[in-house]
Amino acid sequence: MASPGPLMLSHAFGLAPVGHNNVVCMDDNQIAFPVGRHISITNAETRASTFLLPDHFDKVQRITALALAPNRKYLACAEVVSEEEPAQVSIFTLSTGKRTRMITPPVEINVFQWRSLAFSADGKVLVGLGDAPDYLLLWWQWDKGKLLGYARVGQPAFRVALSRPADVKQPSTCAVAGPKLIRFFKIGDAKAEGQVKSANASVGKRELLDFTDLCWLDDERLLACASSGEVCVFESQELRQVLHAVHPGSAPLRAIIPCARGFVVAGDRGLLSVHERTEDNAFVPLKVFTCHGAMSRIAGAAPPGGERKPEPITSLALSPSEDVLVCTSGECEVSLFPLKDMDILRADAAEDHFTPLCGGFHQGAVSGLDVCLRKPLLATCSAADRTVRVWEYNERVCVHARLFVEEPLSVAFHPSGYHLLVGFGDKLRFFHLLVDDFKLVAEFHLKSCKEVRFSNGGHLFAAAAGPNVVVFGTYTLEQVGALKGHAGPVRSLSFSTDDFAIVTSGVDGAVYEWAIDGLARVEDHVLKGCQYNAVLCAERGSAMAGALASGLLAPVASGAGAPAGGGGKGSGARAKARIVAGSNDGKLRELHAGQISRELDLGGKVTQLILTPPDRATRQQSLVVALGDGALLAYSWPLDDTPPASIHVHRGQVSRLRLSADGGTIFSCGEDGAVFLFAARQAEARDAVRRAGGERDDGGTGGELDTVLVSHSELTERLSSVKELEKHISDQQLQADFKLHQAHAEFARALKKAQDDATVRADEAAARYEALSRARDRAEREVRERERATEVAHMRAAEELEHLYERKLAAEAARYESLSQQKADLQSAFEERMLQMQQHHVAQLEAYKHEMDAARRDAERMHSDLRDDRERLKQSYEEELTQEDRDYEDEVQRMKRAHTSHLQAERDEALKLKGEAAIVRKKFEASRTDMQKLRNSLDDRNGEIRTLSGQLADADKMVMMLRKDMREREDTIADKERRMAELKSKNKELEKFKYVLDYKLRELKKELEPRDEALNRMRTTVTELDDELQRDFKHNVTLTQEVGDKQAKIDSLSRELKRERRLLAERERFISSFARDLHRLVTYTEPALWRDAIKDIYRTYAKSDSTTDSHSHTDADAAEHEIHRQREYMERAIDTLKGRVSRSEDKRTFDQKRKVGENQTLLHEVNALRVENKDLKGRVHSLNAQLELADQRTKPRVAGAPRMPPAGAGAASISRPRTGSAGGARAPIDHASTESLPAVGDGSTNRLSAATTSMRPSASVGQLARGSALAGSRERSKVAEMLAQLDENNREIGAQRNEIRRLRDQVSSLMSAAPSASSRARTPLPPSQPQP
């Protein structure tokens, strides 16, 4: 038979209670969170789920933390395998869903649980924070599995966060938070704990708070929230700001996350607030929202004493676009908050803007589950949160929920989907499932009802109450009967497919089949000592299966259980059912007619069983078994030896297992609070099952899928509310139309006004544009004129720079020659050092070889001594053992003979003397005691012999170890010798390569010389251009100052001109007035009137004339004062210029003296170099002679090897690598050229050029000169610099003298103009001749 198909996990309802770091946003829609043993990736819009299903999850007990890489391609998952094994971290590639790498701590580091994980900015480094007692911080290069370092925090810590610097190559800063703890670590390339740089946060005189979470706002700024309701802002590891009472009432904070606007913080009472960062890096709270949770939306959620308090928000995750904020609460609930709509949402504590994912999850172990046959509905109950939920599993959402005061223990769904049975601790309740609520219909007094089921047709339901099973009618709600016979509580019950029989199993080890007609027992199987947890029944090939509560299903011998009762009424009318039972001995048994026909070992506690319908194509069925460790096994049915398909999903025991009506979906729930959905079949098979089940399109069962129950009162209330809403809508429509009309009119008025304003602004802009255009044309003309002037100045400066660059190039060439000589000297020193190191290596190798030979001889001598000692000890031990055996045998024989004769004598004497029998018996006992002592002594000697034998074996082992050590040392010596031979051969080859490479190096240097010269020229050009730019800038500043001075003078003269013109106008008015009065006086005909008129003219003009004269004198004094001020200013300027000239002359004199001294120093250096060159030539000659003698004494060289040149070869021969320079052969020294140096300081340029010509080296083209040529080049460069500096000083002095001469001329002109100005000040000037 073919193996059963695998169980494909399709969806899950639930969230593993991890705490922090239990949810991440992969993109704007995908949310990843742990559920059961797996990680679910759920789409927030479609609610579709995918799962990370690696093979190792069956060994994982729980998931403790999640972390998403910054590129959102990798997900890190912290896992706990067992309490004894170290915790591990798995990294998944999200595009493939496969595990890329598994990371475990080293053996010497004990980490049994990870509290928090974090990735670096580039995603290559993963940081993990361990749990108590050490709270270790470890970081890996996870793609290579390499541990980069670790640090011990030493006190409780909960969260870790890594900074994300702008440059990913820079080391990141890791921050750790906990109670009274904020510590920073520099994550670098440290390999040990002592190398990690850590520092506590600096908080000044404040006390550290109990921090619960932290996050990095940028590379330097860290945010940390505390349980006291405060948020601390750290910058550069120092406390900069504290935000007090972030939430109302200083509610404790639990989670914080950065966003583009600032940060988001959440905490107790479901409070969440958004804070915005201002321009001065302060934070301003915007709004505070409240997450009431999915429990607040459940009917009956409010407790009797008041409102239900929201649970705290424990974790936050932000989508990449920051549109959606995902948060998890203490209720194991995932909620979505529309962060993009935050500005339009009302911050009202009564309003809940959070949307639970899939309608919310259970907050504890799920104790009951059942599925509807006619609708895609699923019912679950949980005793932990006291809720009953109804799910629409095709849409993956919770559609109904009800909170009860008592704990629900079990639930059953009617096939029609209209009714629910819920078992409680004291009663069993029957509910109608309405549109949005459960309506209680009836209650049945059954205590601790943990198992209740509807029949397949829905007309009956059975409930287990202790050892009894009570059967009720669904439509009459009356008891049909009770099934009594179990000796213990009933754990499972199942109706047959035709509802003619029911099978029950219990903790008493009994499995009973009951006929519905008459409620009589048909078949039974009883096995003492086992407990059955599940049962399954079907007609003609269906099965009953039981499972163990103790852990294993064990085989039962055939015939172990016998029928306990006879068949009931109607038992002969239907075929015998096959039964599969599991017992506490770890075997799964298939029973038929109460007899065992087959058994299988499952290896675990079985809690639930289901049987899938036959496949349409293959007619194959599968028996799905749920185990106590959360695993599901799928066996082929009928049972055979085919291995089952398995999948581990739940973290604890599976409490319920159900199958949909079409057989395409399997449902499971467990103690971990998760509900899993498995796709067991294809869609075509489901359609076939529906058609085979008799679904109709004419309003039969298919029409019931969209129907619900509604109470009459609720329907009436809804209709009245609909009418009120329609009336309200009509009123609102009228108000909206009126407001729209008003808005249109207001808009038309505003539009006309805006158009008028726009026309006016356009006219103004056009006028302004014309004015700006004219100004731009003027500015362009001025700019072009300035550009032409600047270009002319730059051309002139470029010519001067070119001459200057030529002089500097000559200086750089001389410097290059000196550096080349230094390089040659350094290379010679390096070669000598290399030869010394080779000789030292050979000597050290010989010493090591002698040391090893001595150690080997000592080891051989020790080995021979030990071998002799062993032989000697062995012989002595054998002799002592032989002697002891011989002595013991003689002693035994002697004592035996003595005791035998003595016994015979005693026997003879006993016949005569019966009274002495007791004495003889005592002597015999004493002799037997002595014999026992001798035997004990013999055993002790044998023990000593065994001990010595063991010591001898140890000595043999020591000898073998020493021999092995000797062999290893001999191998090491042989390897060293081979290595020495290889090094010698390589050394010879390297010498050959060195000679060739030296020649190539010389050639390359010759090729690189022009490039270096060009590069130096370019660098010099850049430097000189920078200097020229600095000089131009200074010159511009000077010109700007001069222009300002001239402008000030022009302004002063303009004011003086205006004053003189005003005085001239006043005098003209005075003269015209006098002429008018005089003309009027002439017109008088009476002489008597002349006297009075002449007096008036005198009083008017004579006094005013005196006043005018006083004004004239005042103006003349002012002009004279201005002349004196200008004179003093010019005198001060002249004194300043004289000081500058004197300082410049002193500087020039000092520079000239310094350069003369440097020239003399250079001459001394040249003479010293000549002497040194002569000595070096003598030494080279002697060394060449010694090398020739050495070559003659050694054997002839190999053909093709370079030979030593003769002693007098000179510059044309090739020098040896150890004594020659890298630049080729050195030119001979030209003494005549160096002796013809001219005297420095004569100021003759022609003599300098002749001297530089005579100082050129006489070597051939392409060769570098040493000695006097190098010194001559340095001397020439320095002399050229001195002459250039002298020329520049002369030019500066000439310019200063011209400036002084100009200033003197200006002062003299002003002095000469002063008397004329004073005279003109007394006499008014005509308007056509302005005063200068």
TrEMBL record:
Residues 1243-1261 have a biased composition (Polar residues). SUPFAM superfamilies: Quinoprotein alcohol dehydrogenase-like. WD repeats lie at residues 483-524. Residues 1199-1212, 1308-1323 have a biased composition (Low complexity). Residues 858-890, 1104-1124, 1193-1263, 1304-1332 are annotated as: Disordered. Pfam families: WD40. Keywords: Coiled coil, WD repeat. This is Cilia- and flagella-associated protein 57. It comes from Diacronema lutheri (Unicellular marine alga).
